[in-house]
């Protein structure tokens, strides 16, 4: 079961539709064009197009499985005072006083550049269930880090 936001679900559906309706026909056209060039045993374009088709079909299958198991979360049923899935958390590194804001999301929606971290990440795991004002120790590859939770919201 994959819990995700409505936005993440919609993005996944749009990405899958683009792959099926745009990318797959383009790859099939490339295969047909390469096949028309003659001997398939030494036809680089044909083999490259077939490899690309295999990768694309694998990605399509993966996205379909995610969507089959996806459950969209109703934000109104979530607790807004504790850190959980879809919580927006402002934390401060106690050592260097650097503040950052993250939204905790499903691993398939994670995007650090957008401030979305996976619920399976070490930081999110340490924050789960905590409230504003709590301090947590997080074991990261660089060692232990101490964070103060400044704010939690949905």
Automatic annotation (TrEMBL):
The segment(s) forming the Transcription elongation factor GreA/GreB C-terminal domain are 79-153
**Occurrences of domain Transcription elongation factor GreA/GreB N-terminal (ranges):** 3-72
Q: Which GO terms describe its molecular function?
A: DNA binding; RNA polymerase binding; translation elongation factor activity
Asked whether the keyword Methyltransferase is assigned, the reply is: no
Q: What keywords appear on the UniProt entry?
A: DNA-binding, Elongation factor, Protein biosynthesis, Transcription, Transcription regulation
Question: What does the record list as GO biological process?
Answer: DNA-templated transcription elongation; regulation of DNA-templated transcription elongation
A Pfam family assignment: GreA_GreB_N
Role this protein plays: Necessary for efficient RNA polymerase transcription elongation past template-encoded arresting sites. The arresting sites in DNA have the property of trapping a certain fraction of elongating RNA polymerases that pass through, resulting in locked ternary complexes. Cleavage of the nascent transcript by cleavage factors such as GreA or GreB allows the resumption of elongation from the new 3'terminus. GreA releases sequences of 2 to 3 nucleotides.
Q: Which family does it belong to?
A: Belongs to the GreA/GreB family.
Task: Supply the name of the protein.
Answer: Transcription elongation factor GreA
Q: Which organism is it from?
A: Segatella copri
Could you read off the lineage of the organism from its UniProt record? Bacteria, Pseudomonadati, Bacteroidota, Bacteroidia, Bacteroidales
């Amino acid at each position: 079961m994959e819990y995700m936001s409505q936005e993440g679900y919609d993005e996944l559906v749009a990405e899958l539709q683009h792959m099926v309706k745009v990318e797959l026909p383009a790859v099939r056209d490339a295969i047909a064009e390469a096949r028309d060039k003659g001997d398939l045993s030494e036809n680089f374009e044909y083999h490259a197009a077939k490899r690309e088709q295999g990768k694309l079909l694998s990605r399509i299958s993966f996205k379909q499985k995610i969507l089959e198991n996806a459950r969209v979360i109703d934000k109104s049923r979530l607790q807004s005072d504790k850190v959980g899935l879809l919580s927006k958390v402002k934390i401060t590194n106690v050592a260097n006083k650097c503040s950052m804001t993250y939204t905790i999301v499903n691993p398939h929606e994670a995007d650090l550049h957008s401030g979305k971290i996976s619920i399976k990440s070490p930081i999110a795991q340490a924050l789960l269930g905590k409230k504003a004002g709590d301090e947590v120790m997080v074991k990261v590859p660089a060692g232990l880090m101490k964070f103060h939770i400044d704010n939690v919201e949905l």
